[in-house]
């Protein structure tokens, strides 16, 4: 299915193609009608999600914030989900938005905000089971790929110099691509106790996940992976002819790309390694709970221990101003990159992903650095500020990073300021975007970016439950 067909089916074409309308800081009159597709044109409906929208909306006094929440929170279900059947069970394909492909990272992150509602909604459980099964098949197709098509076809990146297979949209090796499916499966089982999705294919994908991460630890040889693209964009090419810059063996896992799909400069991507440690512990626990492979569960635990020890040695480095903070990328030779990725896993997102405590002194020093102009990719304007990155260039704030800042904050004032900035950055469109100019938010990229919409919805739900006074 191409992008136009998917848009027509979801009823989202008008909302996606319409130009942004900039709202005044103090809106006059009633807010526009919903930007959601008509009920009969929505890809998927959840009674539990609709009830949560109504519950939270009653707590939001600010009309702009309420309108954006009502558009964003269900956006993944409204516009990006295809739920079918395969081999006698559910099969769920979730596109990222205006790119008709499914990222293992995005698809997990897009549905995770609905996980707390699983117990009371059998249809939502079926969607999750179908996505867990689909992700397992994707990993089995190619554990190095980050994004996939719904069918076995070749796509726009088939000329990349790597081992492209039918059904693979893009083959950028990113550690988190194997961690997010574990997070999805672990979250689902924790919420439901249902063993339905953990079939033979899932167990085989789990084994391949651990094997691939072990190979990329590169303690016993090099990697079979390489990647190059015929482009002038440096972020789309791994250094050293597609194999990455040299690194000393440390026990950490090598990564070619970051979660922004930009190439790593140094091979040890620290947020990804933190995420892998957590994912391996979750996978070990899950394997023991659902049964099937005690030896693999023990290997997961041991592997996580190796990563923990390596991170303690390699992840904290001395910055000239910030002191000892988490590095973004290292090479094991003492070379370090101090920046952050606007996507997750990032240094900013470490508490959100369960990688460290919010009050960790090292994290707090790192956070202070990331949200300052010492960070080369921190953008500060008059009306908004936040982490950006090389993916879309300078002077662009990523709303996803602003949402993550709020989700990892313990300060009411900071959370409230983030909500105000997010309303500003929506540029009157009713949705979140990939990036936007700090003071000209109508100049944004990606009008249909479901991950950020879902994450924004998760933030508002969390604030409604813990700090409802901030929604005024």
Your description of this structure?
The chain is mainly α and 472 residues long. The chain has one domain (66-467): Glycosyltransferase, CATH 1.50.10. The longest helix is centred in the middle third of the chain and has 21 residues, at 270-290. Helix content is 42%, strand content 10%. The protein has a 3-stranded antiparallel β-sheet with strand order 3-4-5. Strands 6-9-10 form a 3-stranded antiparallel β-sheet. Strands 13-14-15 form a 3-stranded antiparallel β-sheet. The chain has helices spanning 3-10, 13-17, 47-57, 63-72, 75-79, 104-111, 122-141, 176-192, 200-217, 239-242, 270-290, 294-314, 361-370, 399-407, 412-425, 450-466, and strands at residues 81-86, 89-94, 102-103, 147-148, 168-170, 268-269, 316-319, 323-326, 329-330, 336-337, 378-380, 385-387, 396-397, 435-437, 444-445.
């Amino acid at each position: 299915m191409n992008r136009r067909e998917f848009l027509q089916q979801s009823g989202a074409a008008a909302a996606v193609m319409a130009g942004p309308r900039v709202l005044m800081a103090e809106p006059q009159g009633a807010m526009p009608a919903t930007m959601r597709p008509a009920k009969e044109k929505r890809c998927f409906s959840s009674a539990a999600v609709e009830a949560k929208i109504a519950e939270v909306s009653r707590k939001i006094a600010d009309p702009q914030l309420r309108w954006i929440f009502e558009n964003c929170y269900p956006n993944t279900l409204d516009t990006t989900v295809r739920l079918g059947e395969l081999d006698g069970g559910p099969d769920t394909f979730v596109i990222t938005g205006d790119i008709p492909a499914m990222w293992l990272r995005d698809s997990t992150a897009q549905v995770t905000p609905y996980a707390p509602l699983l117990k009371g909604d059998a249809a939502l459980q079926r969607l999750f089971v179908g996505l867990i099964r689909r992700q397992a098949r994707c990993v089995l197709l190619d554990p190095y790929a980050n994004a996939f098509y719904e069918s076995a076809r070749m796509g726009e990146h088939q000329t990349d110099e790597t081992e492209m297979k039918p059904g693979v949209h893009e083959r950028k090796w990113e550690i988190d691509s194997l961690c997010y499916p574990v997070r999805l499966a672990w979250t689902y089982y924790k919420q439901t106790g249902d063993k339905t999705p953990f079939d033979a294919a899932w167990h085989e994908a789990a084994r391949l996940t651990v094997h691939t991460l072990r190979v990329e630890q590169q303690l016993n040889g090099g990697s079979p992976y390489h990647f190059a693209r015929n482009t002038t964009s440096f972020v789309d090419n791994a250094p050293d002819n597609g194999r990455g810059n040299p690194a000393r063996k440390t026990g950490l896992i090598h990564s070619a790309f970051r979660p922004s799909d930009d190439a790593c400069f140094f091979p040890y991507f620290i947020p990804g390694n933190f995420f892998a440690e957590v994912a391996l512990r979750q996978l070990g626990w899950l394997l023991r709970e659902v049964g099937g492979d005690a030896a693999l569960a023990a290997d997961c635990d041991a592997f996580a221990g190796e990563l923990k020890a390596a991170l303690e040695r390699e992840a904290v480095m001395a910055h000239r101003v910030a002191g000892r903070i988490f590095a973004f990328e290292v090479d094991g030779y003492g070379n370090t990159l101090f920046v952050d990725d606007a996507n997750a896993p990032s240094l900013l997102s470490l508490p959100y992903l369960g990688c460290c405590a919010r009050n960790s002194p090292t994290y707090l020093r790192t956070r202070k650095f990331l949200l300052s102009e010492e960070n080369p990719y921190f953008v500060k304007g008059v009306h908004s500020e936040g982490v950006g990155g090389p993916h879309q260039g300078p002077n662009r704030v990523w709303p996803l990073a602003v949402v993550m800042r709020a989700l990892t904050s313990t300060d009411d004032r900071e959370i409230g300021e983030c909500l105000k900035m997010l309303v500003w950055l929506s540029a009157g469109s009713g949705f979140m975007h990939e990036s936007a100019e700090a003071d000209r938010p109508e100049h944004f990229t990606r009008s249909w970016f479901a991950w950020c919409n879902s994450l924004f919805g998760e933030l508002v739900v969390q604030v409604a439950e813990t700090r409802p006074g901030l929604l005024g």
